Amino acid sequence: MPRRLSRSPYQSTDTGDFFPEGYDPNAVEYTEGMMGSQSTGGGDRGPALPGMENIGADAMVMGGIEEASDIPPDMEFIPSSVPDGEIQLQVASSSSGGEHTLLVAPVCMGFEDYYAAFSKDSHPSFSVGPQVGRMDRRGGDPTELIIKCDPGGQSGTFTGDLVVNLPEDNSKICYKIIANSF
Question: Where is the region Disordered (predicted)?
Fold first, then answer.
């Protein structure tokens, strides 16, 4: 049986019942300002920005963040040495082509403009859309890209490298596309 050091029914804790060194009861508390600037005084003095009380759907916003609409002319679509994924397509050479919906998971911390295209050495039967858009932030909805292959009557195995450039993040996402046209 272990020996009991204290006869008290209470156990000690790691928290002392004293104020820390340098405690100033008149100092600003960490809770100061938590309720915002309108919480004191009953909130009867109006908005913090006078004139903004009626802003709504009819408000005109000047500037703001604009989404890109075209691929910059100097942008290059160079695939990485190891692709992030590989997609196989089966396409009849006599058909109008086939498509594949690619869901690209967002990888950036914020909303990011993207530019998608095939590298210069890809087979000309490949296309992707939309080529320009805004990708959601990490953990958000994936971006849907439609990959099309129109063999134009040719048969064989076509390869392409899809590159999704994320210039603000200085990164890219690459997919190897292989289409078997029969």
Answer: 1-22
pLDDT of residue 174: 97
User: What does the pLDDT look like over 142-152, one tens digit per residue?
Assistant: 999 999 999 98
Token pair of 170 as six digits:
């200085």
Structure tokens at 126: 């490949």
Q: For residue 123, how far is the Cα from the chain centroid? A: 30
CB 116 within 8 A of CB 167: no
Cβ atoms of 113 and 133 within 8 Å: the answer is yes
8 contact partners, CB below 8 Å, separation of at least 6: none
Domains within the chain, CATH numbers bracketed: 87-181 (2.60.40.10)
How many helices, marked H, and strands, marked E, lie in the chain?
Answer: 0, 8
Edge to edge, what strands does the sheet with 98-104 contain? Answer: 98-104, 143-149, 126-129
Around Cβ 162, how many Cβ atoms within 10 Å? 26
Angle at 103 between CA 151 and CA 96, to 5 degrees: 20
